[in-house]
Design goal:
single chain, globular, alpha+beta, 26% helix, Aminopeptidase, 170 residues
Length: 170
């Protein structure tokens, strides 16, 4: 399979997954401002300026033609606000590493699970066969999202995180 995968709009029951734009940085800096979001992943909340710079890099792409960076912001339709992000790093058009984050005020509503399921379904439609996530063993909420998206934990560990995998389709 040759061409790169590019983020496209994805709709779920309550969410619009919108391809990331640099202009999302200001609102997303507020969405992601809670230091608690960094408990398992490390780091600290980004300023609007640093997030803007990061989004410029993400939107520009990986620079490696065999790797696609696909990033979305989550827009909760009924509230017309951004609530988090999902991302997929697609390698060789058939394997993707996915991740998600939901801002603290919107947690506990199943939005991350809904977004992750929508992302996995979309990746499958693009021909991606293997889908992986890395989750801290103590991060129960993230494990629940991975489970809802069809992933299962493996015996593999990387940098203190468990590798979760969606079984390949052939």
């Amino acid at each position: 399979m040759g061409s790169a995968v590019h983020a496209e709009p994805i709709s779920t029951a309550r969410l619009d997954l919108l391809p990331l734009r640099v202009e999302h940085a200001a609102e997303m800096a507020t969405v992601l401002a809670d230091p608690a979001l960094h408990t398992f992943i490390g780091g600290a909340p980004s300023t609007p300026k640093s997030l803007h710079t990061r989004y410029e890099r993400l939107v520009a792409g990986s620079g490696d033609p065999s790797v696609s960076w696909c990033n979305w912001v989550l827009r909760l339709r009924d509230a017309d606000c951004l609530t988090g992000t999902v991302q997929a790093t697609v390698t060789g058009h058939d394997e993707a590493e996915i991740a998600w984050v939901t801002g603290t005020p919107w947690q506990g509503r199943g939005l991350a699970s809904e977004a992750a399921r929508g992302l996995v379904d979309w990746l499958r439609e693009q021909g991606v066969r293997t889908i992986i996530a890395h989750i801290h063993p103590a991060h129960r909420a993230s494990a629940a999202v991975a489970t809802a998206a069809g992933l299962s934990p493996t015996e593999e560990e990387h940098d203190g995180e468990i590798r979760w995998r969606l079984p390949s389709r052939h």
